Amino acid sequence: MNKKHTGLMRLSRATVYSVQGIRAAWRHEEACRQEIVLGALAIAVACWLDIDAISRLLLILPVILVAVVELLNSAIEALIDRVSPERHPLAGRAKDMGSAAVLMAIVLAATSWLTLLWHHYG
C-alpha cells in the first residue's frame, strides 16, 4: 500500500525537490546563474549598506523576486521544450511571456534600488 507522505516527511521531500530544482536551473540555465550571482552580490551590498531594516528588506525582496520569476520562466521553457521541440506560435508566446515577466521583475528590482539609494544617499 502506497501512503501519501505527510508532516515532516512531506516537508523533507519538498525541500529535496526544491534543491534539485535550483541545481537544475544552475546547471542548465545561464540566465539563472547570472541572476543568482548578481542577486547574491546585491544582497551582500544591501546587508553592508548603513540603512534601516525596512529599506534593506525593500532592496533584498525584489532581488529574490527576480530569482523566483526566472525559475518559473525556466520551468515553462523546459516544459515547452519537453512537450514539443518544433516551433509553434503558442509555445513562442508562452516563452515570450515568461521572458517578459523576468524583465518586469528586473525593472522592479532596479527601480527599487535606484529609488531607495537616491532617497538615502542622493
Automatic annotation (TrEMBL):
Protein topology in the membrane: Multi-pass membrane protein
Source superkingdom: Bacteria
GO terms of biological process kind: phosphatidic acid biosynthetic process
Active site residues of this protein: E70 (proton acceptor)
Keyword Cell membrane: yes
Positions bound to substrate: 10, 23-26, 31-35, 56, 70, 99, 113-118
Free-text comment on the cofactor: Mn(2+), Zn(2+), Cd(2+) and Co(2+) support activity to lesser extents.
Entry binding sites for ATP: R10, Y17, E29, E77, E86, R87, H88, K95, D96
Binding site for a divalent metal cation: E29, E77
GO molecular function: ATP binding; ATP-dependent diacylglycerol kinase activity; metal ion binding
Gene Ontology CC, one term: plasma membrane
Cofactor: Mg(2+)
Compartments in which it is found: Cell inner membrane
Positions of transmembrane segments: 57-80, 101-121
Keyword match Ligase: no
Enzyme Commission number(s) of this protein: 2.7.1.107
Catalytic activity: a 1,2-diacyl-sn-glycerol + ATP = a 1,2-diacyl-sn-glycero-3-phosphate + ADP + H(+)
Function field: Catalyzes the ATP-dependent phosphorylation of sn-l,2-diacylglycerol (DAG) to phosphatidic acid. Involved in the recycling of diacylglycerol produced as a by-product during membrane-derived oligosaccharide (MDO) biosynthesis.
Stated family: Belongs to the bacterial diacylglycerol kinase family.
Matching PANTHER family: DIACYLGLYCEROL KINASE
Name this protein carries in UniProt: Diacylglycerol kinase
Gene source species: Candidatus Sodalis pierantonii str. SOPE
Lineage: Bacteria, Pseudomonadati, Pseudomonadota, Gammaproteobacteria, Enterobacterales
Gene this protein is translated from: dgkA
